[in-house]
Amino acid sequence: MARLSHHAYTGLKDFKKTFKKDWKNIKMFSHGGTECYVLTCPKNYIVLFRGTEPTSWEDIKADVQFRRKQGIHRGFKSALDDVWISLIADYNKNANGKQLVVTGHSLGAALATLYSARINDPNSVCYTFGSPRTGTKKAVNKMLFTAYRFRNNNDIVTKVPPEFFGFTHKSDKTTYFDVDGKLKEGYNRWYMIKQWFKGTGRGILKGKVDGFSDHSMGGYYELCKRKRFIKQEN
C-alpha cells in the first residue's frame, strides 16, 4: 500500500501509467480538494486517498483544529463528504464479493480511516501512513475494520489533533520506524522522548525540521521498501 500512496501524488495520468500492468480498472473521484483513486480486480476493491505533504505549521492548521462532530474530526468528515455520494455508489456497484482495502497518507490516511469506518466491514483492512488522529476513543472503538498504522520517527502530523482534546488513533497494529529507520514495537513514552531528541538534533544538523521531513510519503515509501513491506504487498 505504500507504493500506491506514494504514487498518488503523481496525478491520474502518471498513476495509471505506473499501475496499468497491475490494475486494468483505475478511476479517480475528485471534488472540493479531495482526491480518491479506486482500483478493482476480481479479488480486491482498493480505495486510495491522496493526502498532503506539509512543510510548515500553516499547512497542518486544519489537522490541529479539534472541533468534532459525533466524535469525529469535523474537517476530515467534511472532506470525505465531498466525494462520499460518488464513492458509496461505486462501492455498492463494484465491490460485491471483493476484499476491501483502504489506504492513504497524511490527510489521505485520515480519510481512509473514516471511509473504512463508514463501510465498517469487519473483514476490511486499512493501511495508513503518517495519519493524524481522527476521532474520540468512543468513536474509534466502534470501528470494526482492521487498521495497520505506520509512523516514521518524529512525524509531526501523527501528533495532531492533540490527545488532550480527546482525539486518538485507530490502530490494531502500529509499525514505528525509529530515528535510524529500524522497526520498533512495544515502545514506551520515555523511549519516544529519547527518539524525539535524537531526531530533532539530527534535523538541526541537516538544516531541516525533523517533524516535517519525517512526514514525507517518499520517506515512508523508502522505509517500507527497505523492510520489504513493498515486496510483501505486491
Automatic annotation (TrEMBL):
InterPro entries: AB_hydrolase_fold, Fungal_lipase-type, Sec_MonoDiacylglyc_Lipase
Fungal lipase-type domain boundaries: 69-163
Biological processes, Gene Ontology terms: lipid metabolic process
Pfam families linked: Lipase_3 (PF01764)
Highest taxon of source: Archaea
Gene3D superfamilies named among the record's database cross-references: alpha/beta hydrolase
Listed name of the protein: Lipase family protein
